[in-house]
What does this fold into?
Amino acid sequence: MNYKPSNSLNDVRYEIRGKLANRAYELERQGYEITHLNIGNPGLFGFRTPETMRLAMIENLAQSEAYCHQLGIFPAREAVVMQQQNRGIKGVSAEHVFIGNGVSELIDLCLRAILDNGDEVLIPSPDYPLWTASVTLNGGKAMHYPCPKENGFQPDIEAMESMITNRTRAIVVINPNNPTGAVYSLEILQAIVDLAEKHNLIIFSDEIYDQVLFDNVEFIPMATLVKSTLCCTMSGLSKVYRACGYRIGWAVFTGDIDHATKYLEALELLASLRLCANVAGQWSVQTALGGTQSIKDLVSSGGRLYESRKAVIDAVEKSDFLKLTAPMGAMYAFVEVDSNKIPNFDDYSFALNLLEEKHVLIAPGSSFNAGNNNHFRITLLPDSTTLKEVFIKIDEVLST
It folds into this structure.
């Protein structure tokens, strides 16, 4: 019998954990050591979740064995409310905070609750491919607005507005951006808000890297600007708090809540169908969001993430083949291969060659819906020495 997969998967890609990653696992089973630069997984590189968060879970294990409320436990939701209020966001309520099994689950639920077949969602290009995949899987059409490297990967507002139709339902903003590391300016964010409010579009603001910032760049929460449309802010524990395996994310709705009652009821129905998010992990949220934010030491001068970023910037400057718009946030570098030096460069073929010859796993840029195939993304999580060695290997492969 031929077990044919659903046609809904025809246009769904996630190369971050695709064929290249599977080949890497095959090589590891053969005894090779692979440097995994394809995914932002802090625990893989020795980063630890803050001890206080682990203790908070341990102390509440006895209360973690039953299902909790579909929105999440109240202490976790209230901690998110307090964080949002401290950032100057008004009208935040625990009733409008949804805790999920990571932001990934919430992206799917939030889109499923709003999209009908053929509805359109504006998504940045390049993007984090889960957004495109989730729109597609829920019957929608992903419309990729350009974020040109010539403008520091900031969104092209005119192009964005030209793409809005009567089927457009939402605008997705990823800030700080994955994969490019761009951090959006106040001018750009305000222009996006103006468009959304003019056309009655929901803003989904993916802010999972909201505190991973370099060189004193300013991060502006989107919800501080939104007044007359619905804004959904998404964040979680996986990156800032190095707790990927806890699978805890949140979606906070602010702005025009009064006209979103039926949508939020639909979203709560979907949240109920999956019963609840991981309860044990939720007990660490209140501890995480309060007190000293340890990520600041990692991204400041001398901190590990700062020095790793510097190593990448320095290595690209020394390379005859590479270019880079320095990432100002998040934990990735979106590296360009100079097409004048290598005219027929193909990012996937290069990634495969690098894996087979040098045992380094990267993510091809085209897998981020970048519209070209002369970029690749690496994570900044390895230490600076490892990254220096990686770029020597990259140049060796490019030189052939």
User: Anything to note?
Assistant: The first strand starts at residue 35 and ends at 36.
